[in-house]
């Protein structure tokens, strides 16, 4: 992704109503150099095309859930498999649209964007370790699992029954997508560059865990950028001074050790 694209990502993330599809496409551009403006337009038009295939006049959560599931999980064949967790493409929206396979959260993005374009009362629902889509009132509506082709979750699993069902915000979804990419890369040291750009984009979001700065600093040191990593550690130590002074001392010691590697 070029500097201009990152500026666009940051600006969109800070807009009054961030565009989920656009943000997912902009982050995908970090992984796929061929994902240019024309390819992004194709992805947006594909979401529009799918939305246009839904019937008119739908009313009620059950009717919307059934129609979207019939279209995406049925006729179009969108779903996930265990092997999708091993592919970076499973976290890239344009590839999920092309392959009709992906991680739960990216398949949910497809469900959300298609349903929203058609006027459905829809929202994302992040469960521990899984992501789903709800229709209708969050407390009473229908919840479906796009990874399973849109199968209804009914009143379960237990996470749903405990409630309350809090719709996921757009930026929370984007942060979770980037987190999945980082987890994928962390298991593959040869792809540390992927982990780095996922952290860079996470830090461009207006709200993110402060600990990501420390994670980025450690990754920079691991990649041999000792001076930059040490500077990041020092900056994070300043933040930790107010909440965990012993941790701040430890982080500054790590920064000094990183600088020593320059000699």
TrEMBL record:
<dbReference type="InterPro" id="IPR032698">
    <property type="entry name" value="SirB1_N"/>
</dbReference>
<dbReference type="Pfam" id="PF13371">
    <property type="entry name" value="TPR_9"/>
</dbReference>
<protein>
    <submittedName>
        <fullName>Transglutaminase-like domain-containing protein</fullName>
    </submittedName>
</protein>
<dbReference type="Pfam" id="PF13369">
    <property type="entry name" value="Transglut_core2"/>
</dbReference>
<comment type="similarity">
    <text>Belongs to the UPF0162 family.</text>
</comment>
<feature type="domain" description="Protein SirB1 N-terminal">
    <location>
        <begin position="44"/>
        <end position="154"/>
    </location>
</feature>
């Amino acid at each position: 992704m070029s500097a201009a694209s990152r500026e666009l990502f940051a600006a969109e993330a800070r807009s009054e109503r961030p565009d989920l599809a656009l943000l997912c496409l902009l982050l995908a551009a970090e992984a796929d150099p061929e994902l240019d403006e024309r390819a992004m337009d194709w992805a947006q038009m594909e979401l529009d095309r799918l939305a246009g295939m839904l019937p008119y006049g739908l009313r009620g959560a059950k009717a919307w859930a059934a129609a979207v599931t019939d279209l995406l999980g049925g006729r179009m064949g969108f779903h996930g498999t265990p092997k999708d967790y091993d592919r970076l493409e499973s976290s890239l929206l344009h590839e999920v649209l092309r392959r009709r396979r992906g991680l739960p959260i990216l398949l949910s993005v497809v469900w959300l964007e298609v349903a929203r374009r058609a006027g459905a009362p829809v929202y994302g629902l992040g469960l521990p370790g899984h992501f789903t889509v709800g229709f209708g009132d969050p407390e009473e509506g229908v919840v479906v699992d796009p990874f399973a082709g849109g199968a209804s979750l009914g009143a379960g699993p237990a996470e749903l029954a405990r409630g309350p069902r809090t719709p996921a915000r757009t930026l929370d979804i984007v942060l979770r997508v980037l987190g999945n990419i980082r987890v994928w890369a962390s298991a593959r040291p040869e792809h540390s560059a992927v982990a780095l750009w996922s952290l860079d984009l996470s830090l461009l979001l207006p709200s993110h865990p402060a600990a990501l700065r420390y994670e980025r600093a450690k990754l920079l040191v691991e990649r041999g950028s000792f001076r930059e990593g040490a500077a990041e550690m020092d900056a994070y130590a300043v933040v930790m001074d107010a909440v965990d002074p012993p941790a701040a001392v430890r982080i500054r010691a790590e920064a000094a050790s990183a600088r020593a590697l320059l000699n």
